[in-house]
Fold:
Amino acid sequence: MIRHPVLDQLASSGIKLGLERVRAFLASLGDPQRAYPVVHVAGTNGKGSVCAMVSTALVRAGYQVGTNTSPHLEDVNERVRLNMLPISDGKLVEAIESLDRLRRDWSESMGMEEAGLTYFEFLTALAMMVFAQEGVDAAVFEVGLGGRLDATNVLTPQVTAITSIGMDHADVLGDSLDKIAAEKAGILKAGVPVVIGVLPAEAREVVERYATRLRCPIWRPGKELFKSKGRDGWSLSTPDGTLENVRPAMPGDHQITNALVALGVLHGLRREGFVISDEAIREGIEQAVMPGRLEELRPGLIIDGAHNRPATEALAAWLAQRGKKGTRLLLWGMGEGRDAAHILEPLLPYVDEVIATQCAHPKARKSHELAAALTDLDAVLADGGIIDEVLAEVYAEADETLVAGSLFVAGAARSLVRAGVLDGIEPGQGPLHDEEEGEEPEGDEGEEEA
Structure:
């Protein structure tokens, strides 16, 4: 399901951080978020991957699991998963319409404006309600933005995790790593264990200080968490055991750190009474996938939702290991309000040309504006316009096409491939229409515009 009138109405509500609205609304529903044990995951990058690994492992261990992540790539159903499968259209529509009636009654009783909740708050509450109705054994929630004031922070988790901390959403979360770290550390709860990934020193110090104040047991890389590379995979260790020869399904060395965090979370859940075998944990790490994360949609076409500097640095590291044969073109699309040149810079040594593009998402930056923002970079640059119109041409021209810059543009490329726009086209085979001078292009009349 791509659209629903209720969600369309709420989409204009924007971002309104704070817990009062969603906490009061959930209380009116009987606090469904208290009906199951919870894992709560924050982080600048990697949190979706950790959620997928933890959820998949729990499913393999025999548990019924709800997973709430954001944003979605193609369909809003992706935000509410049951045993890692997106909720069906029928269940989602029923939940939206039921929750909307309850929202309207609640808003009226509180004397609030009609919306009452933001788009994100509504979908967060919806996931919490659906998971309670479905009787899940556990739920895994990804923080939407920051942590302290994110709507998911009404949860009281069994284990928390902070995957990474970098400069992103500085206009909302703060203009320094320690300020951003304080926002993300806001998900810590008194006495609840926290597992962290590799954090910059100043961010790690903030998280450790919060953990000490709240008496949260903390597991950190290099102290309680260890990884080492062997001939047949990676060795990952926590104080509760070691997993040998691990090979995550999702590519990139950054996924090894995500896997280590996931292992820590799963071992933490064992301490809370969950029965999770080493084999289930291995399957979780080695089988979990998240669309739009270094995903090869078809030969010669890779999408990645890299939308901030740490993410493009991780993507650049993967490209450096991958090597390059032939021409690699980058279709680059971004949301409004980001430092496009700074974020793109790490990728420049690994691509032959950058083609600015845009998708249909309302927050997508216009391709010509994006191209203008990149002109000071030492790069071959072009304005490609709308991705729907340029993807096939670029894919035909390049030996390898990379689509990145936001999850929205990655999702748009995914939808186009599923719709068949690249059917019959091979990478690196030259122009789509080899036109001789004065010769009409081959194909049915009237098809060019489409």
